[in-house]
Protein backbone atom coordinates (compact mmCIF):
# COMPACT_ATOMS: atom_id res chain seq x y z
CA UNK A 1 0.00 0.00 0.00
CA UNK A 2 3.09 2.25 0.03
CA UNK A 3 2.29 3.53 3.52
CA UNK A 4 3.21 2.86 7.14
CA UNK A 5 0.73 0.40 8.64
CA UNK A 6 0.66 0.07 12.42
CA UNK A 7 -1.31 -2.59 14.29
CA UNK A 8 -2.86 -1.55 17.62
CA UNK A 9 -2.98 -4.99 19.18
CA UNK A 10 -5.79 -5.10 21.71
CA UNK A 11 -5.68 -8.90 21.42
CA UNK A 12 -2.69 -8.70 23.80
CA UNK A 13 -4.84 -7.45 26.69
CA UNK A 14 -5.36 -9.83 29.63
CA UNK A 15 -8.92 -10.39 28.42
CA UNK A 16 -7.72 -10.44 24.78
CA UNK A 17 -9.77 -7.40 23.74
CA UNK A 18 -10.09 -3.65 24.24
CA UNK A 19 -13.28 -4.08 26.27
CA UNK A 20 -11.47 -4.08 29.63
CA UNK A 21 -10.87 -0.34 29.16
CA UNK A 22 -14.48 0.81 29.10
CA UNK A 23 -15.65 -1.72 31.68
CA UNK A 24 -12.99 -0.73 34.21
CA UNK A 25 -13.53 3.01 33.73
CA UNK A 26 -17.31 2.73 34.08
CA UNK A 27 -17.26 0.56 37.22
CA UNK A 28 -14.55 2.56 38.98
CA UNK A 29 -16.20 5.86 38.11
CA UNK A 30 -19.59 4.61 39.37
CA UNK A 31 -18.06 3.62 42.71
CA UNK A 32 -15.86 6.69 43.15
CA UNK A 33 -18.56 9.26 42.32
CA UNK A 34 -21.35 7.49 44.25
CA UNK A 35 -19.98 5.67 47.28
CA UNK A 36 -23.40 4.13 47.93
CA UNK A 37 -22.91 2.08 44.77
CA UNK A 38 -20.00 0.17 46.28
CA UNK A 39 -22.15 -2.69 47.57
CA UNK A 40 -24.45 -2.91 44.57
CA UNK A 41 -24.09 -5.78 42.09
CA UNK A 42 -22.97 -5.00 38.54
CA UNK A 43 -25.08 -6.06 35.55
CA UNK A 44 -24.05 -6.13 31.92
CA UNK A 45 -24.91 -7.68 28.58
CA UNK A 46 -22.29 -8.78 26.11
CA UNK A 47 -21.37 -10.92 23.13
CA UNK A 48 -18.40 -12.09 25.20
CA UNK A 49 -15.50 -9.64 25.26
CA UNK A 50 -17.12 -6.87 27.29
CA UNK A 51 -18.29 -9.50 29.76
CA UNK A 52 -14.71 -10.63 30.32
CA UNK A 53 -13.66 -7.07 31.06
CA UNK A 54 -16.51 -6.64 33.54
CA UNK A 55 -15.78 -9.99 35.19
CA UNK A 56 -12.07 -9.27 35.61
CA UNK A 57 -12.81 -5.84 37.07
CA UNK A 58 -15.51 -7.12 39.43
CA UNK A 59 -13.40 -10.06 40.59
CA UNK A 60 -10.47 -7.78 41.38
CA UNK A 61 -12.81 -5.54 43.42
CA UNK A 62 -14.77 -8.42 45.03
CA UNK A 63 -18.06 -7.28 43.41
CA UNK A 64 -20.91 -9.65 42.60
CA UNK A 65 -22.04 -9.32 39.01
CA UNK A 66 -24.61 -10.68 36.56
CA UNK A 67 -23.71 -11.19 32.91
CA UNK A 68 -26.28 -11.69 30.15
CA UNK A 69 -25.09 -13.39 26.97
CA UNK A 70 -26.72 -14.46 23.68
CA UNK A 71 -27.25 -18.20 23.53
CA UNK A 72 -24.94 -18.45 20.49
CA UNK A 73 -21.91 -17.01 22.32
CA UNK A 74 -18.85 -19.17 21.54
CA UNK A 75 -18.01 -21.62 24.33
CA UNK A 76 -14.46 -20.28 24.47
CA UNK A 77 -15.78 -16.85 25.50
CA UNK A 78 -18.20 -18.33 28.05
CA UNK A 79 -15.39 -20.30 29.68
CA UNK A 80 -13.15 -17.23 29.81
CA UNK A 81 -15.91 -15.19 31.45
CA UNK A 82 -16.30 -17.89 34.09
CA UNK A 83 -12.53 -17.93 34.59
CA UNK A 84 -12.37 -14.19 35.26
CA UNK A 85 -15.59 -13.89 37.26
CA UNK A 86 -15.16 -16.94 39.48
CA UNK A 87 -17.45 -17.05 42.53
CA UNK A 88 -18.60 -13.45 42.04
CA UNK A 89 -20.28 -14.26 38.70
CA UNK A 90 -23.84 -15.27 37.85
CA UNK A 91 -24.22 -16.08 34.15
CA UNK A 92 -27.49 -15.74 32.19
CA UNK A 93 -27.90 -17.02 28.60
CA UNK A 94 -30.82 -15.26 26.91
CA UNK A 95 -31.81 -14.61 23.29
CA UNK A 96 -30.22 -15.23 19.92
CA UNK A 97 -28.42 -11.90 19.59
CA UNK A 98 -27.16 -8.92 21.56
CA UNK A 99 -30.44 -6.99 21.49
CA UNK A 100 -32.47 -9.86 22.91
CA UNK A 101 -29.91 -10.31 25.68
CA UNK A 102 -30.01 -6.56 26.36
CA UNK A 103 -33.77 -6.70 26.80
CA UNK A 104 -33.39 -9.48 29.39
CA UNK A 105 -30.69 -7.52 31.23
CA UNK A 106 -32.86 -4.38 31.32
CA UNK A 107 -35.75 -6.39 32.76
CA UNK A 108 -33.43 -7.76 35.46
CA UNK A 109 -32.21 -4.24 36.35
CA UNK A 110 -35.79 -2.96 36.68
CA UNK A 111 -36.41 -5.59 39.34
CA UNK A 112 -33.01 -5.44 41.08
CA UNK A 113 -31.11 -2.33 42.13
CA UNK A 114 -27.72 -2.54 40.46
CA UNK A 115 -25.02 -0.79 38.43
CA UNK A 116 -25.67 -1.37 34.74
CA UNK A 117 -22.55 -1.29 32.57
CA UNK A 118 -23.62 -0.91 28.96
CA UNK A 119 -21.08 -2.46 26.55
CA UNK A 120 -20.92 0.60 24.31
CA UNK A 121 -23.67 3.22 24.72
CA UNK A 122 -22.43 4.86 27.93
CA UNK A 123 -20.28 8.01 28.25
CA UNK A 124 -17.93 6.42 30.80
CA UNK A 125 -17.50 3.32 28.66
CA UNK A 126 -16.82 5.45 25.57
CA UNK A 127 -14.19 7.48 27.45
CA UNK A 128 -12.56 4.26 28.60
CA UNK A 129 -12.38 2.89 25.06
CA UNK A 130 -10.88 6.19 23.95
CA UNK A 131 -7.68 5.37 25.85
CA UNK A 132 -6.80 3.26 22.79
CA UNK A 133 -6.31 6.54 20.92
CA UNK A 134 -4.32 8.01 23.83
CA UNK A 135 -1.76 5.23 23.45
CA UNK A 136 -1.68 5.59 19.66
CA UNK A 137 -0.85 9.30 19.93
CA UNK A 138 1.82 8.60 22.54
CA UNK A 139 3.75 6.64 19.90
CA UNK A 140 2.97 8.22 16.52
CA UNK A 141 1.02 10.93 14.77
CA UNK A 142 -1.59 8.96 12.79
CA UNK A 143 -3.08 10.15 9.52
CA UNK A 144 -5.74 7.42 9.43
CA UNK A 145 -7.17 5.25 12.21
CA UNK A 146 -9.28 2.26 11.19
CA UNK A 147 -11.58 0.80 13.81
CA UNK A 148 -14.16 -1.99 13.83
CA UNK A 149 -17.73 -1.03 14.69
CA UNK A 150 -20.17 -3.14 16.68
CA UNK A 151 -22.24 -0.82 18.81
CA UNK A 152 -19.82 2.04 18.20
CA UNK A 153 -18.21 2.51 21.62
CA UNK A 154 -14.62 1.99 20.47
CA UNK A 155 -14.74 4.19 17.39
CA UNK A 156 -16.66 6.87 19.31
CA UNK A 157 -14.01 7.06 22.02
CA UNK A 158 -11.13 6.89 19.56
CA UNK A 159 -12.76 9.44 17.26
CA UNK A 160 -13.51 11.95 20.02
CA UNK A 161 -9.97 11.82 21.34
CA UNK A 162 -8.33 11.92 17.91
CA UNK A 163 -10.40 14.80 16.55
CA UNK A 164 -9.64 16.88 19.66
CA UNK A 165 -5.90 16.62 18.89
CA UNK A 166 -5.76 16.24 15.15
CA UNK A 167 -8.81 17.14 13.09
CA UNK A 168 -7.05 16.04 9.91
CA UNK A 169 -6.71 12.42 11.06
CA UNK A 170 -9.31 10.34 9.23
CA UNK A 171 -11.41 8.01 11.36
CA UNK A 172 -12.60 5.05 9.30
CA UNK A 173 -15.01 2.40 10.55
CA UNK A 174 -15.56 -1.18 9.38
CA UNK A 175 -18.71 -3.25 9.90
CA UNK A 176 -19.63 -6.81 8.93
CA UNK A 177 -21.94 -7.41 6.00
CA UNK A 178 -25.58 -7.67 7.16
CA UNK A 179 -24.58 -6.25 10.55
CA UNK A 180 -23.96 -2.65 9.45
CA UNK A 181 -26.34 -0.84 11.80
CA UNK A 182 -24.12 2.24 12.19
CA UNK A 183 -23.56 2.80 8.47
CA UNK A 184 -27.27 2.44 7.75
CA UNK A 185 -28.17 4.71 10.66
CA UNK A 186 -25.84 7.47 9.46
CA UNK A 187 -27.06 7.08 5.87
CA UNK A 188 -30.69 7.37 7.03
CA UNK A 189 -29.87 10.08 9.60
CA UNK A 190 -31.73 8.07 12.22
CA UNK A 191 -31.03 4.96 14.27
CA UNK A 192 -31.82 2.02 12.02
CA UNK A 193 -32.31 -1.57 13.14
CA UNK A 194 -30.96 -4.46 11.05
CA UNK A 195 -33.88 -6.81 10.42
CA UNK A 196 -31.96 -9.89 9.28
CA UNK A 197 -28.79 -9.76 11.38
CA UNK A 198 -25.80 -11.94 10.44
CA UNK A 199 -24.09 -13.08 13.67
CA UNK A 200 -20.96 -14.66 12.18
CA UNK A 201 -18.92 -11.73 13.53
CA UNK A 202 -20.25 -12.27 17.05
CA UNK A 203 -18.16 -9.45 18.54
CA UNK A 204 -19.63 -6.85 16.17
CA UNK A 205 -23.14 -8.14 15.43
CA UNK A 206 -25.34 -5.40 16.86
CA UNK A 207 -28.85 -4.98 15.52
CA UNK A 208 -29.26 -1.39 16.68
CA UNK A 209 -26.56 1.23 17.19
CA UNK A 210 -26.52 3.14 20.49
CA UNK A 211 -28.08 6.58 20.83
CA UNK A 212 -24.88 8.13 22.20
CA UNK A 213 -22.57 6.37 19.79
CA UNK A 214 -24.79 7.26 16.83
CA UNK A 215 -24.62 10.97 17.63
CA UNK A 216 -20.87 10.84 18.15
CA UNK A 217 -20.16 8.79 15.03
CA UNK A 218 -22.09 11.25 12.88
CA UNK A 219 -19.53 13.88 13.94
CA UNK A 220 -16.24 12.01 14.11
CA UNK A 221 -16.39 9.12 11.62
CA UNK A 222 -15.27 10.04 8.10
CA UNK A 223 -16.31 6.85 6.33
CA UNK A 224 -17.53 3.31 7.00
CA UNK A 225 -16.69 0.20 4.97
CA UNK A 226 -18.56 -3.10 4.84
CA UNK A 227 -16.66 -6.40 4.75
CA UNK A 228 -18.07 -9.83 3.89
CA UNK A 229 -17.53 -12.91 6.06
CA UNK A 230 -15.44 -14.76 3.47
CA UNK A 231 -12.96 -11.93 3.08
CA UNK A 232 -12.81 -11.54 6.84
CA UNK A 233 -12.07 -15.24 7.25
CA UNK A 234 -9.31 -15.04 4.65
CA UNK A 235 -7.60 -12.23 6.56
CA UNK A 236 -7.95 -14.08 9.87
CA UNK A 237 -6.17 -17.11 8.40
CA UNK A 238 -3.60 -14.90 6.67
CA UNK A 239 -2.74 -13.09 9.92
CA UNK A 240 -2.35 -16.38 11.75
CA UNK A 241 -0.28 -18.15 9.12
CA UNK A 242 2.01 -15.24 8.21
CA UNK A 243 2.20 -13.20 11.42
CA UNK A 244 1.23 -15.66 14.16
CA UNK A 245 -1.59 -13.38 15.32
CA UNK A 246 -4.82 -15.05 16.45
CA UNK A 247 -7.81 -12.82 15.80
CA UNK A 248 -11.53 -13.24 16.24
CA UNK A 249 -13.70 -12.13 13.29
CA UNK A 250 -14.32 -8.64 14.73
CA UNK A 251 -10.60 -8.28 15.40
CA UNK A 252 -9.80 -8.68 11.71
CA UNK A 253 -12.28 -6.07 10.45
CA UNK A 254 -9.84 -3.16 10.34
CA UNK A 255 -7.20 -4.89 8.20
CA UNK A 256 -9.87 -6.32 5.90
CA UNK A 257 -10.83 -2.95 4.45
CA UNK A 258 -7.35 -1.72 3.51
CA UNK A 259 -7.75 -2.72 -0.13
CA UNK A 260 -11.09 -0.89 -0.25
CA UNK A 261 -9.50 2.49 0.47
CA UNK A 262 -8.29 4.69 -2.40
CA UNK A 263 -4.55 3.94 -2.63
CA UNK A 264 -3.76 7.60 -3.24
CA UNK A 265 -5.25 8.41 0.17
CA UNK A 266 -3.01 5.81 1.83
CA UNK A 267 0.26 6.68 0.10
CA UNK A 268 2.94 7.88 2.51
CA UNK A 269 0.50 7.99 5.45
CA UNK A 270 0.64 6.59 8.98
CA UNK A 271 -2.27 4.15 9.07
CA UNK A 272 -3.35 2.49 12.32
CA UNK A 273 -5.49 -0.66 12.23
CA UNK A 274 -7.05 -1.51 15.58
CA UNK A 275 -7.05 -5.29 16.11
CA UNK A 276 -9.87 -5.25 18.63
CA UNK A 277 -9.73 -8.81 19.97
CA UNK A 278 -8.44 -12.36 19.76
CA UNK A 279 -11.08 -14.41 21.55
CA UNK A 280 -11.80 -16.96 18.87
CA UNK A 281 -13.24 -20.39 19.55
CA UNK A 282 -10.96 -23.00 17.96
CA UNK A 283 -14.00 -25.10 17.04
CA UNK A 284 -14.98 -22.37 14.56
CA UNK A 285 -11.83 -22.73 12.47
CA UNK A 286 -13.19 -25.37 10.04
CA UNK A 287 -15.96 -22.92 9.05
CA UNK A 288 -13.50 -20.02 8.91
CA UNK A 289 -11.10 -22.06 6.76
CA UNK A 290 -13.89 -22.95 4.34
CA UNK A 291 -15.05 -19.34 4.05
CA UNK A 292 -11.44 -18.33 3.37
CA UNK A 293 -11.29 -20.87 0.55
CA UNK A 294 -14.59 -19.58 -0.85
CA UNK A 295 -13.13 -16.07 -0.88
CA UNK A 296 -10.14 -17.31 -2.89
CA UNK A 297 -12.39 -19.35 -5.25
CA UNK A 298 -10.58 -22.50 -4.14
CA UNK A 299 -13.60 -24.39 -2.79
CA UNK A 300 -16.61 -25.44 -4.88
CA UNK A 301 -19.63 -27.69 -4.45
CA UNK A 302 -21.59 -29.59 -7.08
CA UNK A 303 -24.51 -31.97 -7.19
CA UNK A 304 -23.49 -34.53 -9.80
CA UNK A 305 -25.62 -37.31 -11.26
CA UNK A 306 -23.66 -40.55 -11.01
CA UNK A 307 -24.54 -43.70 -12.89
CA UNK A 308 -25.29 -46.62 -10.57
CA UNK A 309 -22.56 -48.86 -11.94
CA UNK A 310 -19.03 -49.84 -10.89
CA UNK A 311 -16.22 -47.44 -11.83
CA UNK A 312 -18.27 -44.23 -11.96
CA UNK A 313 -16.30 -42.49 -9.17
CA UNK A 314 -13.02 -43.67 -10.74
CA UNK A 315 -14.18 -42.22 -14.06
CA UNK A 316 -14.88 -38.89 -12.36
CA UNK A 317 -11.51 -38.76 -10.59
CA UNK A 318 -9.44 -39.82 -13.60
CA UNK A 319 -11.22 -37.71 -16.22
CA UNK A 320 -12.48 -34.64 -14.38
CA UNK A 321 -10.06 -33.75 -11.61
CA UNK A 322 -6.60 -32.33 -12.12
CA UNK A 323 -3.58 -33.75 -10.28
CA UNK A 324 -3.74 -30.97 -7.64
CA UNK A 325 -7.54 -31.07 -7.12
CA UNK A 326 -8.97 -32.77 -4.06
CA UNK A 327 -12.40 -34.16 -3.19
CA UNK A 328 -13.18 -32.95 0.34
CA UNK A 329 -16.76 -34.19 0.47
CA UNK A 330 -18.58 -37.02 -1.25
CA UNK A 331 -22.13 -37.78 -0.16
CA UNK A 332 -24.99 -39.62 -1.86
CA UNK A 333 -28.12 -37.51 -1.50
CA UNK A 334 -30.67 -39.85 -3.07
CA UNK A 335 -31.14 -42.29 -5.90
CA UNK A 336 -33.28 -40.66 -8.58
CA UNK A 337 -33.95 -44.07 -10.14
CA UNK A 338 -32.21 -47.42 -10.42
CA UNK A 339 -29.79 -46.03 -13.01
CA UNK A 340 -28.67 -42.70 -11.47
CA UNK A 341 -28.01 -41.17 -8.06
CA UNK A 342 -27.39 -37.55 -6.98
CA UNK A 343 -24.05 -36.99 -5.24
CA UNK A 344 -22.90 -33.91 -3.32
CA UNK A 345 -19.24 -33.31 -4.15
CA UNK A 346 -16.96 -30.74 -2.53
CA UNK A 347 -13.78 -29.95 -4.48
CA UNK A 348 -10.76 -28.00 -3.21
CA UNK A 349 -8.34 -26.48 -5.71
CA UNK A 350 -4.80 -25.15 -5.55
CA UNK A 351 -5.40 -22.76 -8.45
CA UNK A 352 -8.72 -20.93 -8.72
CA UNK A 353 -8.58 -21.04 -12.54
CA UNK A 354 -8.81 -24.85 -12.48
CA UNK A 355 -12.54 -24.72 -11.82
CA UNK A 356 -13.04 -23.79 -15.48
CA UNK A 357 -11.24 -26.97 -16.53
CA UNK A 358 -13.42 -29.10 -14.24
CA UNK A 359 -16.65 -27.63 -15.58
CA UNK A 360 -15.44 -27.95 -19.18
CA UNK A 361 -14.52 -31.62 -18.69
CA UNK A 362 -17.87 -32.46 -17.07
CA UNK A 363 -19.62 -30.88 -20.04
CA UNK A 364 -17.45 -32.74 -22.53
CA UNK A 365 -17.84 -36.15 -20.87
CA UNK A 366 -21.55 -35.68 -20.25
CA UNK A 367 -21.84 -35.57 -16.46
CA UNK A 368 -25.11 -33.96 -15.42
CA UNK A 369 -24.40 -31.46 -12.63
CA UNK A 370 -25.59 -28.41 -10.73
CA UNK A 371 -23.05 -26.00 -9.29
CA UNK A 372 -24.04 -24.79 -5.82
CA UNK A 373 -23.16 -21.16 -5.22
CA UNK A 374 -23.12 -19.55 -1.77
CA UNK A 375 -26.15 -17.41 -2.47
CA UNK A 376 -28.22 -20.44 -3.51
CA UNK A 377 -30.85 -21.81 -1.16
CA UNK A 378 -29.38 -25.27 -1.72
CA UNK A 379 -26.13 -24.08 -0.14
CA UNK A 380 -27.95 -23.23 3.08
CA UNK A 381 -29.49 -26.69 3.35
CA UNK A 382 -26.67 -28.89 2.07
CA UNK A 383 -23.40 -27.15 2.95
TrEMBL record:
GO BP annotations listed: isoleucine biosynthetic process; L-serine catabolic process; L-threonine catabolic process
Source lineage: unclassified sequences, metagenomes, ecological metagenomes
Keywords recorded for this protein, A-Z: Amino-acid biosynthesis, Branched-chain amino acid biosynthesis, Isoleucine biosynthesis, Lyase, Pyridoxal phosphate
InterPro entries hit by this protein: ACT-like_dom_sf, IlvA, Ser/Thr_Dehydratase, Ser/Thr_deHydtase_PyrdxlP-BS, TD_ACT-like, TD_ACT-like_sf, TrpB-like_PALP, TrpB-like_PALP_sf
Cofactor(s) required for function per UniProt: pyridoxal 5'-phosphate
Family classification: Belongs to the serine/threonine dehydratase family.
Domain ACT-like: 300-374
Enzyme class: lyase
Cited NCBIfam families: PRK08639.1 (NF006390), THD1 (TIGR02079)
Self-association and partners: Homotetramer.
Protein name stated in the entry: threonine ammonia-lyase
GO molecular function, one term: L-serine ammonia-lyase activity
Entry-linked CDD domains: Thr-dehyd
Known pathway: Amino-acid biosynthesis; L-isoleucine biosynthesis; 2-oxobutanoate from L-threonine: step 1/1
Enzyme Commission identifier(s): 4.3.1.19
Reaction it catalyzes: L-threonine = 2-oxobutanoate + NH4(+)
